[in-house]
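Backbone shapes recur. Consider a single case.
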Amino acid sequence: MDKLMTSTDASNSAQQDKTQTRFLTMWQVVFLVISAAAPLTGMLGAVPPAISLGNGAGIPGAYVIAGAVLLVFSVGYASMSRHVTRAGAFYAYITAGLGRPAGMAGALVALASYTFIQVALFGLFGFFCNEIISPLFHVAVPWFAYSILCLGMVQVLGIRGIDLNSRVLGVLMCLEMGILLLLSVAIVVHGGGPSGLTSAPLEPKLVLSGHLGIAVMFAFASFIGFEATAIFGKECRDPSVTVPRATYVSVVLILVFFAFVTWAIVCAYGVGEVTEIANKVPGNFWFIQSDRHLGPLATTSMSYLLLTSIFASLLSFHNTIVRYIHGLAVDGMLPRALTRLHRKHRSPYIASYVQTLSVCVLVVPFIFAGSDPYGVMFSWGAALGTVGIVFLQAATSLAVAAFFRRTRKDTRVWNAFVAPVLGTVGLLGVGVILLRNLKVLSGSDSPIVQSFPWLLLAIAVLGFVVALVVRSRRPDIYEQFGQ
């Protein structure tokens, strides 16, 4: 009877998947994943410390290096997406290449990493709302009130379906990238700053100066989110075409945009002065130039767009995590109830509620502890999540090489072997930089922060053990995992 029920549940789940309308276009997927990267938040938050603590005026080159490594990673990742179409892309790829225990370890690390990034962003949203909205309306509202309101809005939109989400995120993404692009073009039109418009920020002499590793570390943190393209494969019209294209477009678009915008801001301040200014006024680093080139109204608009940028990133990560939960439920690793789709919106609504609840469970302790929403909640959560995602990307790249080596489904040397191996090496190198500079990335030398690598390792080991236990007790579920 149990086997019959399991078979029926799986059939119903499969039927639900088939009834989903596959309506996502390439650009809708791009909107979803670039919104997670939050270009405006990344530029305003990561660039000043990357300049002051990293390679100074050579910061555009750091973004080019980070983008190049991820572009190489994307070659194997995109090739794999033609053969494995699953909601949990990371763990599905790792399972296919390195086995089910490694895949389960990857699944838990992915869930933890994305969830902690989302917790970090809720803290950041509350912090900036307190800085921007409270003074405007002359109200004294605790930061977490804004975070809770945002949590509710994300939940409502999360249930409404991926098509609506992609349209909302598309509008918000265009607005936040538009204001940065407008500022950059204005800087170019005005001929830059003291040094004029110069190619020096992209020349090896400046790019390799200072602490390049720290600059690349912040640059990588700005890219987190693009890898979610494969997660939405089942909701695309033609995943084998849409996902690879969306992956390449996302990486190239982010790379070119970040490199151009950071080059423009360096030119605006001058090669010789930009490091000192980034160190002295990190909070107003971008707003000073916005006031100068676009006027106070544009600066005010940029501050409000910062809030929508964070909201867009939260909504995008919500969709990503929900699809991981749904994928694990379809595989039988989580309760079958999580596979249910909303009758009207066709979204995994129960998984959506569970994801929101899991974030609440993690946010509440920060509130009761009176933690700084920026210095602790955001900085610590973002550091933990970034480390986890970078090592997951490395494991995925290795899994891609192993998969094609074993199956010979793609015999192209560059796509199936060289690029995945180079991607693995590059990402492991970045991972080591992250671990060595965890204090800088998190802004804290707390023993709790120093334990983050061990926490991620423990989560991975737990996933490995869970897979072995399932293999022993429920071989039927084990065999369907990640397939």
About this structure: The chain has 21 helices and no strands. Residues 24-480 form a domain with the Amino acid/polyamine transporter I fold (CATH 1.20.1740.10).
